[in-house]
Design brief:
Mean pLDDT: 90
CATH topology: Aminopeptidase
Oligomer: single chain
Shape: globular
CATH architecture: 3-Layer(aba) Sandwich
Distance between the termini: 35 Å
Helix content: 25-40%
Strand content: 25-35%
Number of strands: 5
CATH superfamily: Gcn5-related N-acetyltransferase (GNAT)
Number of domains: 1
CATH class: Alpha Beta
Radius of gyration: 15 Å
Length: 144
């Protein structure tokens, strides 16, 4: 299993992988490509592709944020997708474990979090991460 940073050649696959997460928001591949290029040049954000050799299995995005009280950084997993044909094969847990291993290499990383309201994925996150009593509040600003 391999976890690697996404590159420009992955753009269309990432766009397709995000399809079910972006509903009901719609935008074209060209619109996404412009945004995607800016993501590839951002030090505090990254798309990662999880593969089993030649097949792209999953996608995850990580947002890096400062944690002054811990003199370090945290990461939040945002988009988390397993390709439809690879679901139900244990890849979600393996992908989270690969992310944890990757982040352990950066000694200033203090925390990895994911927020989810998806009932189909909570059991996976609970297996790979510790559930807390953290409550999340949000409001959408400038909807697309």
């Amino acid at each position: 299993m391999l976890l690697r940073k996404a590159n420009l050649d992955d753009c269309e696959w990432v766009y397709d992988a995000l399809e079910e997460l972006r509903f009901p928001v719609t935008y074209t591949l060209l619109q996404f490509e412009n945004y995607y290029k800016s993501c590839l040049n951002n030090d505090n954000f990254c798309f990662y592709i999880f593969s089993d050799g030649n097949n792209k299995v999953g996608l995850i995005s990580l947002n890096k944020f400062k944690m002054p009280r811990y003199l370090g950084f945290g990461y939040e997993m945002e988009e988390f997708v397993i390709d439809k044909i690879h679901r139900g094969q244990g890849y979600s847990y393996k992908m989270i474990e690969a992310v944890k291993m990757l982040l352990q290499e950066e000694k200033s990383v203090r925390k990895l979090i994911i927020k989810s309201n998806g009932d189909d994925s909570k059991h996976i996150y609970a297996k790979a991460l510790k559930q807390t009593d953290l409550v999340s509040f949000q409001i959408y600003i400038n909807k697309l």
